[in-house]
Design a protein that fits this description.
Elements lengths: L5 H12 L4 E4 L4 E4 L5 H11 L8 E4 L14 H14 L10 E6 L6 H4 L4 E6 L3 H10 L3 E2 L1 E2 L11 H8 L5 E2 L12 E4 L8
Parallel strand pairs: 1-8, 3-5, 4-9
Antiparallel strand pairs: 1-2, 2-7, 3-6, 4-5
Helix pairs in contact: 1-5
């Protein structure tokens, strides 16, 4: 797995900045992404998936600094746990490695079309080079949701993603998933509950 080439990255960034939805490989499945602060872009993504807004969406980032607007309400212990998780995710993955998506308390920095009906926001620091490079170049978090219509199997390849969405997606970044079919664990940072 490698980071996107300059031409690919520029094309993806242009699409994100113009409110488009893009497709790209993530840790375990192909994902759809957009600018989380662009309501029209999120509406477009939800329509593509036929996903209700109240379910909420996951945000991915390249590093903890990109999540800093969301971390002000965390206790020292919660912040320490999040940092420890990110640190362990940055080591070489083992055969049974599974990335973690954390539910953290939502605050005024995240719009309702991302949190949905929840009082938390789902965030993940991605170690996939494609996703990390994309977030770095974009300068912040992006939406990351599995590339499939609701109730269909998540796409594991670019071909499967194109089969679902075709020309409705203007940019498909080339690449492969880290571990095919392995979705992230979902944990609540406040309660410690494991939801997936």
């Amino acid at each position: 797995m490698s980071a996107p080439g300059r031409w690919q990255l520029e094309k993806a960034l242009s699409a994100l900045k113009h409110g488009e939805v893009i497709a790209y490989p993530t840790e375990g499945v192909w994902g759809l992404g957009c600018d989380p602060f662009n309501a029209d872009a999120v509406d477009r993504l939800l329509a593509l998936k036929n996903r209700p807004m109240d379910k909420g969406l996951i945000l991915v980032a390249a590093n903890l600094n990109q999540l800093s607007p969301l971390l002000s309400s965390l206790s020292d212990a919660q912040l320490s746990q999040l940092k420890q998780s990110v640190s362990s995710d940055n080591t070489k993955p083992s055969a049974d490695y599974r990335p973690t998506t954390w539910l953290i308390p939502a605050n005024g920095h995240i719009p309702y079309w991302i949190t949905g009906a929840h009082d938390t926001v789902a965030v993940r620091i991605s170690k996939h080079p494609m996703v990390a490079a994309l977030c770095q170049a974009f300068g912040g978090m992006i939406v990351s949701t599995s590339a499939n219509p609701t109730k269909q199997a998540p796409a594991l390849t670019q071909l499967a993603t194109r089969h679902y969405f075709g020309k409705q997606i203007p940019v498909y970044l080339s690449g492969k998933v880290n571990r095919s079919g392995v979705t992230s664990a979902i944990r609540d940072l406040v309660t410690g509950d494991v939801l997936r």
